[in-house]
Amino acid sequence: MESGQSRVFKYNIFFWKCLGLWSDETSGYYYKYYSVAFQTFYSGIFTFLYTLNFMFTPFDLEIVISQSMFYFTQLAQIAKIAMIVLKRKYILRAFNMLDCIEFQGVDIKTTEIVNKNKYSYTNYWKACCVYYHISCFSIIILPIIKYFVRRTELELSLCQYYFLNDQTRVKYHGGLFFYQFTGLVVIILSNISTDTLINVLLMMAITQFRVLNCKLTNLRFSSLDEELVTTVDKEVLYVEKLKICLVHYDLLLKYCNIIQDVTSYAIFAQFGTAAVTLCISMCTFLKPLTNNDFMTSLTYEYMTSMLLEVYLPAYYGAELTNGSEKIVMAAYSSDWIPRWESFKRSLLWSWSVRKGLL
After folding, report:
1. Which of 32-36, 56-60, 115-119, 285-289 has the weakest average pLDDT?
2. Where does the sequence pass through the membrane (predicted)?
3. What are the structural domain ranges in the chain?
4. Which residue in 115, 89, 121 sits closest to 103, CA to CA?
């Protein structure tokens, strides 16, 4: 990961190491103990307490909405964490494929396409960081500011732990608040690193289809080396250039299969929990809430994030399918009619992309 396209995932790996999700050859026993302890404390126990709270929540619409809104997000996050831990081998394989020679630009135009994708990812990462931290500010930091400025009661932001009695909650309020505060930071960092991984892996595949499309579209007899004076030499070189495109396409299919193996269960969990969360959030408009202003604004913000979590993978998946279908037109835009039979026979591969990829 010192160079190549996989370099753009350095921040993802940095956060995974901080969260105890990414152990490599350099990780010692202490890191493994840290990883187990950290994830047990902030994933296992955190989710268990959240589940108990959800089971003991009073059956009131406003209370149920406020206590369950982030619960399903936590369940989706568990699936994403499992994706990073269990699919690490496949993620590294995808990174290695992104760094291979076939996935780099071969000329000025294709190199520009690849570099443009790197800048797009950087901007996407920054946008995610800004949005997620604004959400953290709204959920935790803003109530703290109101507590010191207006002297309002500082309530637990995510859940109230209704399985505890009032006396216990008051006694350990500071510890519970700190636990939720740090837990929310962990959730935000996990969401940033996993959501960007899923979407950028799809973006990389779309970019490679654009590169391959550009190669095939510009695969013309007139673009060959003019020093090859004989037609036979040009035909041989033409077939060789097509074989390079075929190798690129074969690697791209393998890369897409790896993406599907890595992200399928996490995306399924994300779509399912996001749908439930959106339905719960919509219930806020059925009944006037006592803390209407803050809760309504928080609901709008949270619904927006859930919509983005559903929309972006779906959008990039549609773009990926569309890009694979364009390969057929790009292949037959080349000078294939007067070519040798071996060239035409090799060109039949392109019809397979009509089946779709993801």
Report:
1. 285-289
2. 33-56, 68-86, 130-149
3. 5-355
4. 115
